[in-house]
Amino acid sequence: TLSGVTLLGLPAEVYLYGMQYSMMTVSLIFVGIASNYIYLPVFYKLQLTTAFDYIELRFDKRVKRIASVFYTVASLLFLPVIIYAPSLAFNQVTGFDLHIIAPIMSLICVFYTAIGGLKAVVWTDTLQFSVTLCTLAFVLVLGTKSVGGLAAVLERSKLGDRLEFFNMNPDPTVRNTFWAVVLGNIALWIAFIGIDPAGVQRFLAVPSLMDARKCLVIFIVFTIITKFISCFSGLIMYTKYFDCDPLTAGFMKKADQILPYYVLEVAAAVPGLSGLFVAGLFSTALSTLSTCLNALSGIVYKDFVAPFMPRDTSDEKASTLMKIITVVLGLISVLLIFVVERLGTILELMLSLRGITTGPILGIFTMGMLFPVANRKGALCGAIGSVLLMSLIIVQNQIYVWNGIIRNTPKPLDTSGCNITTSTQSVLFNYTTTTLPSTNTIPPSCPSEEPFWLYRISFHYYFLLGALVTMIIGLPISLITRSKEDLFVNPDLLSPFVNRFLRRSAETTRCESVEKELQFIGINKNRAGSKDAAMDKLLH
C-alpha cells in the first residue's frame, strides 16, 4: 500500500487536479468483494507455487509462458519508476544530482536482494515500513497545524476548486472523472491484489481461507486509509501555497517534487524531519524494488531458464543463476531511469507503463475463472491482440506527451503572493502557460490537429481496457475453435459462484430432458399413476 508512487504521486495529483482521485477509495471496496468471491477462493484451493501456474492448469504452457513474458516486461518497466520517485525527492531536498543518486540506490538494493534473497527482503520490509509510517504521521500532523487547521484546509481548497469528488463527465479523454477513477482503479487494484504473484502468495501463507479473507479485509481498510491520507496531504500543500505556487514560480522542475519541497519548508523548525522524510521514501522504494526483483528473478528462472537446464541441476547452481538474473534485471532498471524522467508524472507513468501488459494478464485470469467456454486459443489470441493494441495506444500517447502535443491542464495555480520581481513573474507566467509540469521542459509545438481520441484516453482506463479487449477477442475465438477437449473444465479452476450457476443449469437441463423423454414414450398419469412417479421410476 505504501510506495514512492503513493507518497509523492498522489499528493502531487491532488495538488494539481483536485480530490477527484481520492474516489479510488470507493474502488477498493469493490476490489475487496471481487477478490474475495472470484479470485482468492480459486488460488487458495489450488495452493499453487505461483499464481501463473493457474494459467498452465486452465489453458496450457504456451499461454502461461506468454503471460510470464508480459509480467516480466511490465515489471521491468515499473522498476525504474520505483527508484525514480525517491531520487526525485532527494534531489529536491539536497540538490544532489538525480542521475547519480538513482543508480547508487538501485545498485545497493540489487546487492542486498541478490545476496540475502527473500529473507533479506522480509527483514528490511519490517524496518522500512515502520520508518514510512512515521513519515506519514509527521507530514499529516505538522502539515495541518502549519496551515491553520482543518477548517483552513477545506476553505482554501474549496476556493481553489480542489474539492471535486463527483465529476460525472462520461468523456473518456478527460483525465480525472468519477467514472475514470472508480472503474479504472477497480481493474488496477484487482490486478495488484487479486492476481499478482507477490500479492497472492501473501494471502496463501495463512492457515485457512477464512484467515485469508480477514487479511484481505485488513489490507483493503489500511490501503483506503493510506491513500486518503496521501490525497489529503495534497490539499494541505495547496493550502500552504495557495497564493504562491512553487511550481509556477520555478522553484522546482517537476510536479512530483512538491511534497519534498513542502516538507523541507515545514521541517525547518524540526531538526531531522526532512532526513526522516527522505529515509521513508527510500525505505518504501527499496522495499518495493527488492520484492519485485526477488519475485521477478524467480519467474524468469522458472519459466525461461529452468526448462533448458539439466534435470540434475543443483540447488546451489540454481541459486547462483537467480542472483545473476537479479543483477541483470537491476542494471536494466537503472538504465531505464534516464528514460522515465522525460515522461509524465509518477502516477501517470506507473499506470501507463504497466497498463501495456498487466491489463491483458488480468483478462486471461478473469476469462479462465468466469467463463468455462474460454480455451487456450482464445486466451492466447486475446492476450496478444490486447497487448498490441495497448502498446499502440500508450506508446503513441507518450510520444505525444514527450513532444508536448498532449498536455494536461491543471486547476488554477496562483503566484500573486510570491516574493519575486514583476519581470521575473511575467516571464515565469508566460513559460508555464506553454509548458506544463507534467511534461518535459521543451516548449511544445502547436499541432495542426488534435490526436485521435483513443490516444488521448485517460490513463486510468488502461488496465480496464486491456482486460476487456483480451476478453472481447478471446471469448468469440474460444467459441469458434472449441473442441471436445474444451467441454470439460475442472471445477476447481472456476470461481465458486460460477460452479453454483453451472450446477443449477445442469440440474434444470437434466429435468427438462427427462420430461421430454417421458412425453416421448407416452407415460401419463393413467398408465404410471402420476407423472412424478414415472419420473422417479425412470430416474432410478
UniProtKB/TrEMBL annotation:
GO biological process: sodium ion transport
The keyword Lyase belongs to this UniProt entry's keyword annotation: no
Molecular-function annotations in GO: symporter activity
InterPro entries in the cross-refs: Na/Glc_symporter_sf, Na/solute_symporter, Sodium:Solute_Symporter_SSF
Chief localisation class: membrane
TM stretches of this protein: 20-44, 65-86, 98-118, 130-154, 174-195, 216-238, 258-282, 321-340, 352-373, 380-402, 459-480
Keyword annotations from UniProtKB, A to Z: Cell membrane, Ion transport, Membrane, Sodium, Sodium transport, Transmembrane, Transmembrane helix, Transport
Record localization: Cell membrane
Assigned GO CC terms: plasma membrane
UniProt membrane topology term: Multi-pass membrane protein
Family that this chain belongs to: Belongs to the sodium:solute symporter (SSF) (TC 2.A.21) family.
Name of this chain's protein: Sodium-coupled monocarboxylate transporter 1
Organism, as annotated: Ignelater luminosus
